[in-house]
Every structure is written in C-alpha cells, then in structure tokens.
Predict the 3D structure of the following.
Amino acid sequence: MPIPILASSSLATSTAITTYGPPLLGGMLLGAATALLLVSIGRVAGVSGIVGNLFSLPRTNRFHEASWRVAFLLGLVAAGAIARGLSETALVGNAPRSLLTLIVGGVLVGFGTRLGSGCTSGHGVCGVSRFSPRSIVATCTFVGAGALTVFVVRTLGVSL
Amino acid sequence: MSNKTNGAILAAAASGLLFGAGLAIGGVTDPAKVLGFLDFFGEWDARLLFLMGGALVVNAPLTWWIRRRRTPLLQPSFQVPASHAPWRSQIDAPLVIGGAVFGVGWGLSGYCPGPAIVSVSSVVDGSLAALTFTLAMVFGMAGFAVWERYKAAQHEVATTEPRLAQPGE
C-alpha cells in the first residue's frame, strides 16, 4: 500500500524540516553575517573579542575601533528586540538556572573567552571556517568542558 | 566623518543585525536548548549542530573567496589572526585553559556571549536571566583586561629596573 508509506514519509520529512530547518537557516544567516563583516571591514565576527576589546582600545584609531564594535553590538540587541516584537516566544529570557548560577557562569564565560581568545562565534564559526588549528582545538575544548559540566551537574543532581 | 567611517559603522550594524537574527531564528537564544545540545550523555539535542553546520557551509567558502582579495572594501587591511607557525606551536596554555573555563561557564548557564546579548531586551518582559548573565560576563571581561594590564606593568618593572652590576663587570 503505497499511500500510507508516502504519507508517513512526508510526515517524517515535514517533522525534520520543522525541527532542523530553523537552526540550519539561522546558521546560514550567521555565516552570511560573518562574511559581511569580513568583506566590508576585514574583521572577525567574534562576539567576545568585539565586546572585550572595548576594554583595551588602541591609542591610535580609537574612534573607529570603538564605533564599529558598538554598532555591531547594537545590531545584535536590535535583532533581539525585533524578534521579540514578532514572536512572543522568540526570546526565551527564562533560563532553567538561578540568577546566582548565571552570575557565576557569566564571569567564567567573560574571563574564559578573553583568556582563550574567542568564543562560539570567533573560534566556532570564523576560526573553524578558516580551518585554524587554534580555533579547532578551542572549539573542541569548550564543547567538551560544557558537556562535562552538564553531565556532572546532572549526575550530582544539584539544582542550579 | 569620512564616508568610509560611516560605511564601516553601517556595515558593522548590518552584520550585527543579521548575526542576531541568525541566533534568534536558530533557537540558540534559548538556554534550555543549549544545555540539551551539551547533554551528550543524556537526551542529546542535535539541533544546534545544524546551526553550526549551516554557518560553516555558508561561511567557509565565502571566507576563502573574500581572503583572496588584498584588502576589505572599507578598510585598508584585513585584521584576521593568521599564523604560519607549525600548528603545534599555536596551541598554548591560555587557549586551552581559557576554552575550558568558558566551557564550564557555558555548561552552567546555557548562555554564550552572542545569544545573551541578543536576549537582553527580554528584561522588558521581566526576565532578568539574559541581562544578569551579560553584566556578569562584561565584568569578567573587564577583570581580564585589568589582569592583563597588571601583568604588562609587572613585566615592564622587571625589564626596566636598573640591574645591579655583577662582580667582574
């Protein structure tokens, strides 16, 4: 009976599209945004570097160094605000974590990304796209450490 | 301001907007999804692998193509970390320790820098998570900048202090 098979396979296909379509599309937009920054001003779209280097601006060319960074960050915030306007569930401000955990996590992420010269965008997207050995090692390290942390938290059964 | 300066600001804003849209559409602004992706040993959520895959499929060929140019469109030079050193010598302790510290923070919170900044406007709905994380992250980054300056100053003291003449000199 071909019809039920067809029906079930098209159902599976549409489930796959609704499940994996948005992350795939989102990822492609990330790739395009990264390429746009590189071709226009020759910079790496690494969010931790863009924020963190605001604290150590060079003495020369200070205005340019600060202004493109602030413009990029305002673009990020604006995108979030627009998404929030379009759909109530677009921004999940609720993390399944307490504010204390978010503070500890935030400080670790801020310090760690600066020490390691990058985060998921700078190493994970830009660096891996250049096949940079440093970025590939960094990406494996933070994904591994993140997975280990989630595992330990779940195993210990602590509520964070 | 020159046209190139205005152009650079505009291009950066457009890139940020597109980047933020990608993060929001990709669902990475939801910390629960990120924690699900990092849960390799439990009910692993593979969706964010598609986000990374989509980014690489678009960005890797474009990056290769763009870097064949001698300069970017609006600035005199590319500022991309490029090292021709053997790959083993590029892997140093700060890279690995920093990556591990970041990973622990990421696994604790479910946020990395981009998605947290994109989500700060959720504070309008009364959810403090993204804003709290972002402020703590900026504090950590400022702390790193202070630490680096302290180290540089120590280094300067060590190298400029007058050395006592050694016997026999």
In short: Chain A has a mean pLDDT of 89.
